[in-house]
Request: fold
Amino acid sequence: MTEPRIEIEQDATRPLREDIRFLGGVLGDTIRDHEGPEVFDLIERVRIEAFRVRREEVGRSAVAEMLDEVDIAVALPLIRAFSYFVLLANLAEDIQRDRRRAAHEAAGEAPQDSSLAATYRKLDAAALPGPAVADLLTDALVSPVITAHPTETRRRTVFDVQTRITELMRQRQHYPERERAGLELEIRRQVLTLWRTALIRLARLRIQDEIAVGLRYYELTLFDVIPAINAEVRAALRSRWPDADLLRRPILRPGSWIGGDRDGNPFVTAEVVRTAAGQAAGVGFGRYLRELVELEKTLSQSGRLVEVSDAVAELATAGYADPTAHADEPYRRALHRIRERLTTTAGRALGVPARSADVPVSAGAVGTALIPPTSAAGAGGGPVAVGSAAGQEAGAQTSPIGSAPAYSDPQSLLDDLDAIDASLRASGDGLLADDRLAALRHAIETFGFHLQGLDMRQNSEVHEQVVAEILAWAGVHPDYASLPEQERVRILSAELNTRRPLLGPHARLSELATKELGIIRAAAEVVATFGEPAIPNYIISMCTSVSDMLEAALLLKEGGLLDPGASDSPPKCAAGIVPLFETIEDLGAGAATLSAVLEVPVYRELVAAKGMRQEVMLGYSDSNKDGGYLAANWALYRAELDLVEVARKTGIRLRLFHGRGGTVGRGGGRSYDAILAQPAGAVHGSLRLTEQGEVIAAKYAESGAAHRNLESLIAGTLESTLLDVEGLGDDAEPSYQLMDDLAARARAAYARLVHDTPGFVEYFRESTPVAEVGDLNIGSRPASRKPTNSVADLRAIPWVMAWSQARVMLPGWYGTGSALEEWIDGDPQQLATLSDLYRRWPFFRTVLSNLAQVMAKSDLDIAARYAELVEDEALRAQIFGMIRDEHARTIRMHAAITGNDQLLSDNSSLAESIHNRFPYLEPLNQMQVQLLRRLRGGDDSELVKRGILLTMNGLATALRNSG
Reply:
């Protein structure tokens, strides 16, 4: 039975191997032609030797010896070569994934879990009552939020060329070999462009660059994919429960932190907030205007052949100043009127002068900011044109824009488009209404005029400092910071109950307070321009108390986002106030904090004004760095259980926002599995989660991948909300107590290494490239919150990325093996209990599955090479010995509990991927160690530094979720 299965697997992967061989050959030819035969021959020898290492034909030192003392002028093209080998292998794997999915569908097999088709089958089998479904899906929301924590190390140029190669390779697979010459020549051109393009940036990304990078995914995929999924899900659910009026608002609504998250990022200013919101809106307006141009071209029905509704006729009458222009084409005239009004709307919203709806402008020029044109980012000091993206048909008459009334909100624009839709359907032209017009209507319903919600975030310590200064200036209290919690809550509540501002126009405040209030006032301007969805949330980092939440509320009041109300009007706040619980202690106390703040009358009234909706954010990164993988995961689960109970008792509608990173050490892993692993009641129809690092491009750069990933988020949300997926039944509480025990043991084991071992920080800094991570120009945010040597103050991204580069992957597993081994203690019955939990409980199964994924990417033999960089031999032996022992222990425990000797027995595609890329990782790691040794030995030449950054770039690309 084994041999036929192996043959089938080999047949299935043959196209992948052929693609990798072809692309590797093209890259090799390019290197030979442009770097010379000597460099090419060295790269080939290293590649062949790395494959021999993988096959265990030679020892790990074989590659290291070949690279020892390689001249830096040769090392740089060698590093670039293996980095591009990895990038092209990633591309081939993505195409292979699509092949497999297509083959699965063509074979007529049952839909796979994480697809909506599979979810609908499960819902049909459950036969749920409509009223219950309607209640659970009230205000349903699935919101992926792109954050300003990029470990996406590819430059945009490299990204664009890779996208083009992917398109060409997709075409190539459908061409017979004799017809591929032209395509393959173009692929060679693109690979040459890659080789001639610098992999790393000379300057660190500015936050304005990050804003642009985040917005590029809308034109790439999100404009088309998100509205289509929203329409499909709504139709599918309403067909099953036709009387429930489900999903009145689109379920999938994206968000962003880029330009609004200032926690530890001094580069976020009031101007940046305006720019982020304005550029997002400009992208949306530009897309809508281009679509209206295309609709004018296609909806050419003659008034002599069709009847139109009175509403369309009224729009058509106002369509052109010249009544003879397109006189016989009512839809064109009506659409032109809509475009005139939208052009005026965009011009006024973006603070730029409007122009004729017929003047072509580039998409990128459609509004870059809400600030005046003379200072608009990227506007070159002149006015920013707003209008159509293409001219009218030849002979069309133009009309001046500016006199056309602006739309008051997206719904008024939708009303006009709905009138056109209804008229088309009434005349039997529904087929036309279902095409471009339907897509535009769904897009406007989803994205509005704001495109995406921009969250604001700041640390509670900053809030406290600014509030203390304001209260002192206003004469409320001279030393707020010295007050106990109860007195703080009393003062803050009193101020939140009055509309009287604390500050006048001539208040003299510190630079920090002035900046903070300026940012909030800029957010208020955004809300006034685009509506409340533009700034949906204000997040408080390191939130530990009721006063932390009320301090944020007071600042929102002073900045114009919160209205305390009066005797005849309740208080309201445009942005929801969201506590972020991050450390393990704060997660444990989070439910008590939430319960206490809901007892403060003024705050509860604010929540009531939001329909009793309260969002809470859970931090995966700091809790992991604080207590280790297993303890952090269980602290998050326990926090959710407690928060769900608070929601039940207080009557709030709880929404959880998961601050997940790309790596397992920062909450990463398969999103669908992660959602199903939430406790009962934690999802309740809505969730938000951050998308970070290389996973953003992996998920959203290509339409197919974007559709699958977004579909899986909704599938998981629907199943977790409407079905019993926890699977524990009456065993829940004993299982929770068991996990309490395991988590405590795991945290203690983690603390023994990270917090209690003298010299651990020294070992970390010397055995990893953490110091060099800060030099990799991957984002605007500093690597540390504070300039200290403390692990606590180091940001999670460099913490995780450094361990990943050194192939230890410590944040994704350390401490778990000890906890499991201690608890089992050699007892077969204890082991059987854990094995049963692994089979029945999605949470425990996901924890072990994610652990296995990260351990499969670790390599302790490579890590030993990094450990040699530690000068203190005794320290090196002690700490690396602890790491090696725990690594082996964790693998043993995983095998014992799951019954699988292979870490990735449940994830064959990842196993195949790691197998394929191993030979490219080996030389990159070995070369990085060599260059780190040179740099720390005194060779601080620019070329050595560049070589280190190139290896980091290549390894991040190879690992795909490194930070």
Notes: Residues 1-8, 356-401, 663-668 have pLDDT under 50 and may be disordered.
